[in-house]
Amino acid sequence: MTNSYGKFEIVISSTTIGIADLTSNEFYAFANIDGLRYLNDQTANDGISRKALLYGSELQTNKTFGFKIQGVQDSVVMFTGLTPFLSIETYEEGRPNNGTTIKQNRLISLTSYNNKLISVPLNRAFLDANATPIGGGIILRYEGFRVRDATTDNKMYYYFDDYCNDKEFIFVNKYGVKENIKFRSYLNENFQTKGETFRVGGVDLIGGATFFNTSANNQKINQISTEEFEVKGQRFLKTDKEMLKDFVSSPTAGVIDNGAIKQIYITDGSFKLVETSRGVDFSFKYQYAQTKLSFK
Q: Is residue 152 in a domain?
């Protein structure tokens, strides 16, 4: 997705004396927050100050975002003005919560990126190479983990689910930065093809000079084939509703297919609150962005 949608260099200003301007090209669009836009004269500072970690989901009362399922494109986009490090807390459990015992505390140093907007990878290979255990020692085996911003104490849990029917997607959220999301779904595929026909005439010599076939055949031209996929019946927390809105309305999106990002677009999406205790029921359809044309 790096080159598929235009990046914009912006300046994020603060009215607080002593805080320098931030200049960044990490934004993929002029995102809209609370009716404001990221512009030099109107920078949506209210939205920025509430969320140092720019996830699409809403914060809960304990400053926790809705959880994510670990994927290959995990990352967090964050402001580093007051935070010299990013805290990574690992767990033996695959689905930890605020009451789960932490197995190991680790840190990713951000001192080289002071007062900047950066994207930090959170896939397991990057964490094992860059998240240093506090006090030294070896990296202990873990399942789930939590990423936490030291300044705001905003945090996100990353669950470990080893399911073969997970699908991971990349999209641009309301802050104008990349975010990923995973859905558990079987492959629901619909294949359609359409085109025009024309009649091929002429004389076909058969059997030497014995007789001629003067009939005409119909052939397809301008043929277009469409593969449409559907993800059904996903259940999310109510705090993820804003993230799901960002996903279905994102100007550009991709799906992870055998480790590569394939561009897609969302053709139809819907969600509804089923019950207060059950969260959000979410379904959507998508197609590959590249159209398959015929050879004719």
A: yes
Q: Specify whether the CB–CB gap between 216 and 199 falls below 8 A.
A: yes
- Last residue in a domain, options 30, 47, 64: 47
Does residue 86 lie within any of the structural domains? yes
As a whole number of angstroms, the distance between CA 173 and CA 243 comes to 7
The total number of structural domains in the chain stands at 3
Helix (H) or strand (E) holding 180: strand 178-184
Same domain, 36 and 76: no
Answer yes or no: do 201 and 291 share one domain.
yes
- Is the pTM higher than 0.85? no
Amino acid 212: pLDDT: 57
Sign of the four-CA dihedral 131, 135, 138, 141:
negative
Residue carrying structure tokens 């207060």:
276
Domain that residue 28 falls in: 1-47
Determine the Cα–Cα distance for residues 281 and 227; give it in Å rounded to an integer: 24
Residue 249's nearest CA partner among 14, 20, 31, 8 is: 31
51-105 residue pLDDT tens: 678 888 888 878 888 889 998 889 888 877 666 789 999 999 999 988 999 999 9
The tens digit of pLDDT for each residue in 98-148 reads 899 999 999 998 887 776 777 888 988 889 988 999 988 889 999 999 999
Residue 103: other Cβ atoms inside 10 A: 17
Q: How far is CA 141 from CA 71, 91, 93, 138, 145, in A?
A: 17, 9, 11, 9, 11
Q: Check whether residue 147 and residue 209 sit in a common domain.
A: no
Cα torsion through 34, 36, 40, 46, rounded to 10:
-20
Q: Is residue 1 part of a domain?
A: yes
Residue 12's pLDDT is what? 57
